[in-house]
Write a structure and sequence with these properties.
The complex is a heterodimer of chains A (618) and B (119).
Chain A: E1 5-7, E2 15-20, E3 25-34, H1 36-42, H2 44-53, E4 73-83, E5 88-94, E6 102-110, E7 117-125, H3 135-141, E8 142-150, E9 160-174, E10 195-208, E11 255-256, H4 269-285, H5 289-296, H6 301-311, H7 317-333, H8 344-366, H9 370-379, H10 383-398, H11 404-410, H12 468-477, E12 481-483, E13 492-494, E14 496-497, E15 501-502, H13 504-519, E16 524-529, E17 544-554, E18 557-563, H14 570-573, E19 579-582, E20 589-592, H15 596-599, E21 606-612, E22 614-616
Parallel strand pairs in A: 9-11
Antiparallel strand pairs in A: 1-2, 2-3, 3-4, 4-5, 5-6, 6-7, 7-8, 8-9, 9-10, 12-22, 13-21, 14-15, 16-17, 16-21, 17-18, 18-19, 19-20, 20-21
Chain B: H1 2-18, E1 23-38, H2 43-50, E2 59-64, E3 70-75, H3 82-88, E4 97-107, E5 110-118
Parallel strand pairs in B: 3-5
Antiparallel strand pairs in B: 1-2, 1-4, 2-3, 4-5
Classes of the chains: A alpha+beta (618), B alpha+beta (119).
């Protein structure tokens, strides 16, 4: 039975929308080849499930990586299919000996509100895998298939039971094949015949559990000398293959695309090197119980390490240093998010970002003074801090004269002249006053300007570097305050950024702090977003800095009053109309500045991005 | 003769191209200043067009033209006479009549004016 499907629209080369024309029932599938890192972005659970499939090292002392788990999967070429109902499938190719006459895929399917399912699919071919030239060639070479549902891929010994799936491929065919239809839909704009992608079923099968009792891929042994190139599964191909090998209708079963041999196999040096890589990783794994504990509890870690080395030049001496540094430090840094109310998934992402950071900067960090290393690593307590430290290190690499102390203790904006303008702001000495939570929903009591207008520090004030942060610092110094260190715990409250919007947890903390500070005549520097993008600030949102000097309420709502150094004119910078209103619905604090010349061409109203706590000047 | 003409044309175009990031013209204008402030111009673009390091593009001087439009011109911090400006102009900038010495950078149809000096 052949169904004619037509493409309605294609938004990108990787996105194909199909429609079953005869049933006028639309079906869409998107499919593309992805790598391991892209997989994490698409589906984090799939990322973790596939990491379990990638057996880098045996966590059991008695097992070695290449005897217990006698296969390896290719994480650089994953076949991804997404259906209209958001069901997703991922096909992983098991590395193969080049002369084998079969190809195996592990397939992981994700359906809404269901546990992920895994299958082992074997394609028996009429020629060797290294003789396959392209997808068409692969499809034509398939003699039969075998499907085994993997009951529990975490178990060393896996049992199989019933499961259904449909394997197939997409083929481009004439949109109006077999008839003389001359309607416009049959032609492209250039007059050529229109084509569509049709999903053709190779095998639609339900495994009834009659297959092998253990999940043991056929090929892909590291020592492939014993692997026969014939069909070693032939004695039990009756794992219920069925369906049609011709083009056919897709059903409610999930669909999978084969992931076939494309030039890399077990004999390739890159693949062979993985054994060496895995041995190195195993050494790290066994180096301490602390490291072992972290690895055993972080499912993706070893697979990602293997992938990272494979895609970053192999086991070079510099990668070995980075890896050793990363593994030695993860037991500490992985737990440094404790002051943040992260959800389990945020914690997992925090750990992943930390690990990536250590891999990328491990070698550079290892060359620093040990005390500086500790200072840098202790700073990494949140996503924002990872961004900040990452940006700082990149800046330090580009500017060898810049030091961690100077940047960490002094600056927010990493502009090129920052390090020249130190104010000896030392870490510590933070305002530790305890203040009560503030309910922002009530009408705000008026707090008049805590700095006199005559003390306004505007743009161009002589003796100060022409930079909004420097003017803001000079402004709060008029009341005897200095800015707290950006990296010190709880001293910077990021309440909004362009990427994620309002952070309600920090907003609540920030509003309470502002109420306390202004009530005690403490002016506070805040970051401002006034244009898309940023000039180099770590939060990727802040464009400008102003000083909050008062708060109150009027007919437009509750507001903070600010001094704006964007102008050198006092009447503009200290205007009583420089107000930023708190929106209780969105949580945004935004408004207009009366520095008319400057705001004339900014993209939007000022929005507070971050609250920088003040501390007394010594 | 044709060859000479061709060479002149080539030299002319090469010369124009080489001038892309150089000052095409120096100009002076007399204005009544209104204020000084943080620049809101695209520093990356102007740095690319003029060759001035963007860290030296921080500040605008503002004045009103004859049509009462506010005009902001960027200062080249690297060469601007700030000492003179701070002592003679900054504290009574509003309505101050000054002469601005400008470097004019031209790139195709665009013209960028940068303040080099003030008197």
């Amino acid at each position: 039975m052949v169904f004619v499907l037509s493409i309605f629209q294609s938004c990108s080369p990787e996105e194909v929308v199909l429609q079953n024309e005869s049933l006028t029932k639309s079906r869409d599938y998107s499919f593309k080849k992805i790598n391991f890192l892209e997989l994490k972005k698409i589906n984090n659970q799939a990322f973790i499930e596939s990491a379990k499939l990638k057996n880098v090292v045996a966590s059991d002392k008695n097992k070695t990586s290449n005897s217990t788990f006698n296969y390896d999967i290719d994480l650089q070429n994953i076949q991804y299919v997404k259906r209209a109902n958001d069901d997703e499938t991922f096909s992983f190719r098991i590395f193969q000996v080049p002369t084998a006459t079969f190809q195996q895929n592990i397939i992981v399917e994700f359906k809404k509100n269901e546990e992920p399912q895994s299958y082992l699919v074997t394609y028996y071919l009429n020629k060797q895998v290294n003789q396959i030239n392209n997808s068409n060639d692969f499809i034509r070479a398939i003699k039969s298939t075998s499907t085994v549902k993997i009951e529990n891929q975490l178990k060393t010994h896996r049992t199989t039971s019933g499961g259904c799936l449909q394997v197939g491929y997409y083929e481009e065919v004439d949109a109006c094949e077999g008839n003389l239809d001359t309607s416009p839909r049959c032609y492209n704009s250039d007059g050529t015949r229109a084509t569509i992608n049709v999903f053709k079923v190779i095998d639609s099968a339900c495994s009834t559990g009659g297959g092998p009792t253990d999940f043991i891929p056929l090929a892909s042994q590291w020592d492939f000398s014993n692997t026969s190139s014939s069909n070693p599964y032939s004695e039990y191909t009756g794992t219920t293959t069925g369906g049609s090998t011709a083009g056919g209708e897709t059903t409610d079963l999930n669909i999978f695309l084969p992931n076939y041999f494309e030039g890399s196999d077990l004999s390739d040096p890159a693949v062979q090197n993985m054994l060496q890589i895995n041995q190195f990783i195993t050494t790290l794994y066994n180096s301490s119980n602390e490291i072992k504990g972290v690895i055993d509890n972080t499912e993706w870690l070893m697979a990602y390490t293997n992938y990272w080395i494979g895609t970053n030049g192999g086991l070079t001496s510099s990668n070995q240093i980075a890896l050793t540094y990363a593994f030695n430090n993860i037991p500490t840094i992985f737990n440094q998010y404790y002051n943040n109310d992260y959800t389990p998934s945020q914690v997992a992402n925090f750990k992943f970002s930390v690990f990536q950071f250590l891999l990328y900067h491990g070698e550079w960090l290892s060359n620093l003074d040990p005390q500086i290393q500790i200072s840098i690593l202790e700073t990494i307590t949140s996503f924002e801090q990872i961004e900040f430290v990452n940006g700082t290190i990149n800046f330090m690499i580009e500017n060898p004269s810049a030091t961690w102390e100077n940047i960490f203790h002094n600056r927010t904006a990493l502009d090129r002249n920052s390090a020249e303008d130190l104010d000896n702001n030392q870490e510590g000495g933070n305002d530790t006053s305890v203040y009560s939570d503030f309910n922002p929903q009530q009408t705000w009591t008026t707090i008049n300007r805590v700095i006199r207008t005559s003390q306004f520090v505007g743009w161009g004030t002589p003796g100060i570097k022409r930079n909004c942060m420097d003017y803001a610092k000079a402004q709060i110094a008029k009341n005897g305050y200095q800015i707290s260190n950006y990296g010190s715990a709880d001293q910077t409250l990021q309440i909004y950024d362009e990427q994620n919007g309002v952070n309600n947890t920090n907003l609540k903390k920030g509003l309470s702090y502002l109420k306390y500070a202004l009530s005690n005549n403490i002016p506070v520097i805040v970051g401002i977003d006034d244009n898309p993008g940023h000039p180099g600030n770590p939060d990727k949102s802040t464009d400008h800095f102003v000083v909050l000097v008062g708060m109150g309420s009027n007919s437009n709502g509750n507001y903070f009053q600010f001094y704006d150094n964007a102008s050198g004119t006092t009447s503009q910078g200290t205007s009583s109309l420089n107000l930023l209103y708190y929106n209780p619905q969105t949580g945004k604090i935004s408004g207009k500045s009366q520095c008319v010349e400057y705001v004339n061409s900014v993209a939007h109203d000022y929005i507070i991005t971050q609250i920088r706590k003040s501390k007394p000047k010594p | 003769m044709k060859k000479i003409f061709l060479i002149i044309i080539i030299l002319f175009f090469n010369s124009c191209n080489a001038q892309n990031k150089r000052i095409s013209e120096k100009r002076t204008i007399n204005v009544v200043l209104n204020s000084i402030g943080k620049t809101n111009k695209d520093k990356n673009l102007i740095a690319a067009m003029t060759g001035i390091n963007k860290s030296n593009l921080t500040t605008n001087l503002y004045y009103y033209d004859n049509s009462k439009n506010i005009i902001g011109l960027l200062i080249n911090d690297e060469v601007f006479n700030y000492d003179y400006f701070n002592s003679k102009i900054y504290y009574n900038i509003e309505n101050k009549r000054v002469k601005l010495y400008l470097d004019v950078y031209k790139n195709k149809s665009k013209e960028v004016l940068i303040i080099r000096k003030i008197k």
